[in-house]
C-alpha cells in the first residue's frame, strides 16, 4: 500500500505537466528557517517538511533525470523567488553528485545547459538568484568542460560582456570568468581586451567593474609566464584610476571592494603591482587622506602597502626606492598613532587589558603597521627616518605627539634592533627623559618603551645604561600612585632584570629587592603579579644572596599566602615562596614551609576539582617543597601522594553532543586537560625520588 502511494506521488511530481504538486514539495523544503544549503538535514520537526524531504529523496533515487529537468523548469518559470533560489541550489547539488552528469542523456544535458544560460539573461531575476545561477554554471562548467565540453558557454560570456548587454548580465559573465579563469587562459589576448575595455569605460556600473576586476585578479595567477602577466599591468593601472575616480565622487564602498582585490593580488603577485610605483603612490594618497576618507578605506590602502613591503625583493619598486617609500609612509603611520585622547577611564583601569581606552582605530592599525614595516624593511631603511620624526615630535608642544614617538620607538625596536643599538645614546635619552613628562600617558608610553627596549636591545642596553635605567625606574616606582603606571613599571623592571648579567645586577641587588618589596605590598593585583614574577627571576639568578633578604621578602609573601582566593596572585606567591625556600635551605625555611603546607592541606580538604589550575599549582609546589625539605616532608606524603596519583591517572570524559546542542566546548578544553596532565606528571616525577629517598630513613 505504501509503495502504491509513493508511485502516485512520483507520478504527480515527475509527470509530463509542470504540476503544482512538485512546486508544493519545493515550497515545503524552503519553509524552514534553517540554511537552504543544509537541505533540512537537521530540522525535520515540521510534518510537511519531513514529508517533502522524504518525497524529494524518492525522486532523486527513482528518476534523477526527470528531477533535474523539473528543477531546471522551476528555476525558469516559477513566480516564487524562494522556490527559484532553492531550485538553483538543489539543481547544482543534483548535477554534481557522483557521476550523475555522465548518466544523463545528451538531450537532457543540452536542455540543462541552455536553461541555466537562459535564466542568467532574465532581467527580472533578483541579483541573489542570478549569482546563485552563476555559481551553478561555474561549478557545472568546471566539471564538464574537459569531459564533453560546453560549446555555447565561451561565446555567450564574451557576448555578455559587451556594452550593449544589460548590466546585470555583464556582471554575471565576469563572475563566471572569475570562477573559470583556469579554463580560459588560452584566450588571454581576448580577455585582456575585454577587461581593459570594461575598466576604462566611464559608463559601466560599479558592480560590473568590481566583477571584472575580480575576474582579472583570479585570471592573472593562472598565467604561468611572467610576460603574460605583465600584459595585464595596464589593466591594473586602469582599475586604480577607477578607484581614485570613485573616491573623488564619494563612492567609498566600491573603492574598498577594489582595494581588497588589490590586497589579494599583492599577496600573490607583488611584482606586478610594484612595477613602476604608480599604484603605490596612489595608495599612499589614499592612506594619508585622514581628514577626507573613511577609516576603513584608508586602512585597506595601508594594508596593501604593508603587504607589498613584506614581499621584499618581489616588490622591486619598494626595494629600489626604499628610503623614498619609508619617507612617504612613515609619517602617515606616525600621524595615526598620534590619534589618542585622554580618556578618564584609562586612569582607573583595574587590568592592563584596557590598554586601548582613549585610542582610535587609526592608533591601533598604525601601531601594528609600524611593527610590521620595521620587520619587513629593517633598521637601515627605518631608523634614520624614524629618528628625524621622533626628534620633531618631541619638540612639539602637544603631548599626543610625544606619546606617539615613544609608542613608535617601542614598535620598531624588534625589527630595527641592530641599527638602533648604534644610536643607543639618543634612544635612551628620549625614553628616560620622558619618564618625567607632566602627562601621565606619556610617562606610561616611556615605561612601555623601557620594557620593549629591555628585550630587543639586550644586552647592550643593560651593559651600557644599567645605572641610568635602574635610577630612573627606582625614582619612577617610588613616585607613582597610578595603578596603571605602577604595573607597567613593575613589568619594565622585570624585563630589564631578566636580561641583566649577574655581574651587572649584583651592585643593584639591594635596591632591586627593596623596589620589589614595595611593589609586593601594593593593593593592585596586576602590580603584585609583575613583582612576584620579577622576584622569582631574581631568586633563581641569586639563590646564595637570599639569606639576607629572607625576612624582608617573606613579610609580604606570608600575607599573600593566606589569601588563596586571590588568584593568580596566590599561585605566584606560593611558587615564589617555594623558590625562596629552596634558595635559603630547609633550616631557615622550616617554619614557613610548615605554614605553607598547612595552607595547602586546608585547600586540599576543600575538594578542588582536578582541572583547577590552583590544584595543579599546589601539587607542583608540594614537589618543590619535598625537594627542599627532604625527610622533613615525610609527614605530608600520606596527604599529598593519593590525590597526585589520582590526578595522574584521570582520563577525559568522552561525551556525545547533538548537532543542535548550544555548546561552547572546543579543542581548547582538550588542550587544557593535556596541559594539566603534564603538570601532574611533572609533579609526580619530581616528588617520587624524594619520596623514595625519604622512605629510606624510616
Brief description of this entry?
The protein has 698 residues and is mainly alpha-helical.
Give your account of this protein's structure:
This protein is an all-alpha fold and 698 residues long. The chain contains 37 helices and no strands. Helix 5 (81-95) runs parallel beside helix 8 and helix 26 runs parallel beside helix 28. It is extended and about 95 Å long. The N and C termini lie far apart (85 Å).
Task: Produce the secondary structure layout.
Layout: H1 2-14, H2 20-29, H3 47-62, H4 64-77, H5 81-95, H6 100-103, H7 106-121, H8 127-144, H9 153-160, H10 167-179, H11 188-199, H12 206-219, H13 226-230, H14 233-248, H15 252-268, H16 270-273, H17 278-287, H18 295-309, H19 316-320, H20 322-337, H21 344-347, H22 361-377, H23 379-395, H24 399-420, H25 424-434, H26 440-456, H27 460-479, H28 483-498, H29 502-505, H30 509-520, H31 525-541, H32 546-561, H33 569-584, H34 586-604, H35 613-629, H36 634-649, H37 667-695
Helix pairs in contact: 1-3, 2-3, 2-5, 4-5, 4-7, 5-8, 7-8, 8-10, 9-10, 10-12, 11-14, 12-15, 14-15, 14-17, 15-18, 17-18, 18-22, 20-22, 20-23, 22-23, 22-24, 23-24, 24-25, 24-26, 26-27, 26-28, 27-28, 27-30, 28-31, 30-31, 30-32, 31-33, 32-33, 33-34, 33-35, 34-35, 35-37, 36-37
Structural class designation: mainly alpha
Global geometry: extended
| Number of DSSP strand runs | 0
Q: Report the sheet with the most strands, covering strand number, pairing sense and barrel closure.
A: none
Look at the structure and give the mean pLDDT: 82
Give unreliable regions as ranges.
Answer: 29-46, 651-669, 671-677, 694-698
Proportion of beta-strand residues? under 5%
Work out the helicity level: over 70%
Kindly provide the radius of gyration, computed on alpha-carbon positions and rounded to a whole number of angstroms.
35 Å
Number of helices: 37
Amino acid at each position: 500500500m505504501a509503495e502504491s502511494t509513493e508511485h502516485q506521488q512520483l507520478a504527480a511530481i515527475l509527470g509530463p505537466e509542470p504540476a503544482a504538486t512538485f512546486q508544493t514539495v519545493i515550497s515545503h523544503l524552503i519553509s524552514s528557517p534553517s540554511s537552504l544549503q543544509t537541505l533540512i538535514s537537521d530540522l525535520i520537526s515540521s510534518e510537511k517538511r519531513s514529508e517533502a524531504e522524504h518525497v524529494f529523496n524518492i525522486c532523486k533515487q527513482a528518476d534523477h533525470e526527470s528531477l533535474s529537468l523539473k528543477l531546471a523548469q522551476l528555476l525558469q518559470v516559477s513566480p516564487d523567488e524562494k522556490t527559484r533560489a532553492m531550485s538553483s541550489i538543489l539543481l547544482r547539488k543534483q548535477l554534481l553528485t557522483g557521476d550523475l552528469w555522465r548518466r544523463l542523456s545528451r538531450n537532457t544535458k543540452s536542455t540543462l545547459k541552455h536553461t541555466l544560460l537562459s535564466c542568467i539573461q532574465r532581467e527580472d531575476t533578483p541579483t541573489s538568484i542570478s549569482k546563485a545561477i552563476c555559481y551553478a554554471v561555474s561549478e557545472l562548467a568546471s566539471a564538464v568542460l574537459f569531459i564533453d565540453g560546453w560549446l555555447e558557454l565561451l561565446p555567450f560570456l564574451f557576448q555578455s560582456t559587451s556594452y550593449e548587454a544589460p548590466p546585470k548580465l555583464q556582471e554575471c559573465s565576469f563572475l563566471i570568468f572569475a570562477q573559470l579563469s583556469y579554463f580560459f587562459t588560452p584566450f588571454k589576448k581576448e580577455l585582456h581586451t575585454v577587461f581593459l575595455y570594461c575598466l576604462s569605460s566611464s559608463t559601466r556600473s560599479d558592480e560590473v567593474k568590481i566583477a571584472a576586476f575580480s575576474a582579472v585578479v583570479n585570471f592573472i595567477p593562472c598565467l604561468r609566464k611572467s610576460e603574460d602577466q605583465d600584459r595585464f599591468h595596464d589593466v591594473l593601472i586602469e582599475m586604480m584610476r577607477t578607484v581614485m575616480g570613485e573616491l573623488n565622487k564619494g563612492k567609498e564602498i566600491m573603492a574598498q571592494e577594489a582595494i581588497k582585490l588589490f590586497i589579494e593580488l599583492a599577496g600573490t603577485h607583488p611584482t606586478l603591482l610594484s612595477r613602476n610605483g604608480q599604484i603605490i603612490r596612489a595608495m599612499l594618497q589614499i592612506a594619508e587622506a585622514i581628514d577626507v576618507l573613511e577609516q576603513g578605506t584608508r586602512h585597506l590602502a595601508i594594508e596593501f602597502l604593508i603587504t607589498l613591503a613584506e614581499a621584499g625583493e618581489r616588490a622591486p619598486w619598494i626595494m629600489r626606492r626604499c628610503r623614498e617609500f619609508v619617507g612617504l609612509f612613515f609619517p602617515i603611520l606616525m600621524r595615526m598613532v598620534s590619534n589618542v585622547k585622554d580618556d578618564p577611564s584609562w586612569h582607573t583601569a583595574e587590568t592592563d587589558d584596557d590598554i586601548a581606552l582613549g585610542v582610535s582605530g587609526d592608533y591601533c592599525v598604525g601601531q601594528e603597521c609600524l611593527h610590521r614595516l620595521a620587520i619587513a624593511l629593517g633598521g637601515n631603511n627605518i631608523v634614520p627616518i624614524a629618528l628625524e620624526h621622533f626628534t620633531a615630535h618631541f619638540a612639539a608642544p602637544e603631548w599626543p605627539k610625544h606619546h606617539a614617538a615613544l609608542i613608535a620607538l617601542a614598535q620598531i625596536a624588534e625589527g630595527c634592533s641592530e641599527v638602533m643599538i648604534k644610536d643607543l645614546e639618543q634612544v635612551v635619552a628620549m625614553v628616560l627623559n620622558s619618564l618625567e613628562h607632566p602627562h601621565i600617558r606619556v610617562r606610561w608610553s616611556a615605561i612601555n618603551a623601557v620594557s620593549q627596549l629591555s628585550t630587543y636591545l639586550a644586552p647592550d642596553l643593560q651593559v651600557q645604561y644599567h645605572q641610568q635605567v635602574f635610577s630612573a625606574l627606582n625614582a619612577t616606582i617610588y613616585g607613582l600612585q597610578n595603578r596603571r603606571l605602577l604595573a607597567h613599571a613593575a613589568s619594565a623592571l622585570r624585563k630589564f632584570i631578566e636580561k641583566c648579567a649577574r655581574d651587572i645586577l649584583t651592585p643593584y641587588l639591594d635596591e632591586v629587592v627593596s623596589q620589589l618589596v614595595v611593589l609586593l605590598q601594593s593593593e593592585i593585583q596586576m602590580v603584585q603579579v609583575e613583582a612576584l614574577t620579577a622576584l622569582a627571576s631574581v631568586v633563581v639568578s641569586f639563590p646564595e644572596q637570599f639569606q639576607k633578604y629572607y625576612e624582608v621578602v617573606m613579610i609580604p609573601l606570608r600575607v599573600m599566602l593566606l589569601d588563596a582566593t586571590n588568584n593568580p596572585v596566590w599561585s605566584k606567591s606560593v611558587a615564589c615562596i617555594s623558590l625562596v625556600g629552596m634558595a635559603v635551605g630547609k633550616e631557615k625555611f622550616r617554619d614557613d614551609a610548615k605554614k605553607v603546607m598547612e595552607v595547602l592541606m586546608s585547600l586540599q580538604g576543600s575538594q578542588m576539582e582536578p582541572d583547577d589550575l590552583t590544584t595543579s599549582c599546589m601539587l607542583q609546589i608540594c614537589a618543590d617543597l619535598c625537594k627542599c625539605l627532604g625527610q622533613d616532608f615525610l609527614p605530608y606524603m600520606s596527604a599529598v601522594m593519593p590525590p597526585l596519583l589520582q590526578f595522574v591517572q584521570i582520563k577525559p570524559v568522552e561525551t556525545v553532543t547533538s548537532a543542535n546542542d548550544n555548546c561552547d566546548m572546543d579543542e581548547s578544553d582538550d588542550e587544557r586537560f593535556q596541559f594539566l596532565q603534564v603538570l601532574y606528571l611533572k609533579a609526580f616525577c619530581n616528588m617520587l625520588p624524594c619520596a623514595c629517598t625519604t622512605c629510606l630513613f624510616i
